[in-house]
């Protein structure tokens, strides 16, 4: 997987202000407002920063959390970074550009092959066909 590196100024020119806040400054969009929360078309979700394919629609599910939820990422596309503040959250970032996607939670009782919930900010994603 290719690595995408840009300066802060370059990111600001290609991302909206809200995308920059979430992807580059580790922000969070409000729950239940993202365009992909209740979106279930077939295709691939890509990083809004670098267009890397991250999630297939076949791994998306309705967790009721207010953000798009996936039980698995495309292999090698998403990096997990354990939080160091003592919380049980694990940050997830695009493995290509380091853009903040959201958090992954484990062992919440969902009946999926991985028992993971990748809780992703809609604004960190773009959607398209495979």
Describe the secondary-structure layout:
Elements: H1 8-14, H2 17-23, E1 44-47, E2 53-56, E3 60-61, E4 69-70, E5 78-82, E6 90-94, E7 100-106, E8 116-120, E9 125-128
Salient structural properties:
130 residues, mainly beta, six-stranded antiparallel β-sheet, 9 strands, 11% helix, 29% strand, globular
Written description of the protein model:
The protein is mainly β and 130 residues long. Helices cover 11% and strands 29% of the residues. The protein has two helices and nine strands; from the N terminus they run H-H-E-E-E-E-E-E-E-E-E. It has helices spanning 8-14, 17-23; strands at residues 44-47, 53-56, 60-61, 69-70, 78-82, 90-94, 100-106, 116-120, 125-128. The strands form two sheets. The chain has a six-stranded antiparallel beta sheet with strand order 3-4-8-7-6-5, with no helix packed on it. The protein has a three-stranded antiparallel beta sheet with strand order 2-1-9, with no helix packed on it. A hairpin with a 7-residue loop joins strand 5 and strand 6 (90-94). It is globular, with a radius of gyration of 14 Å.
Short description:
With 130 residues, the protein is mainly β.
Strand adjacency order, main sheet: 3-4-8-7-6-5
Helix count from the secondary structure assignment: 2
pLDDT average, as an integer? 94
H and E order: HHEEEEEEEEE
Per DSSP, what share of the residues sits in E-state strands of 2 or more residues?
25-35%
Largest sheet, in brief, is: 6 strands, antiparallel
Write down the overall geometry. globular
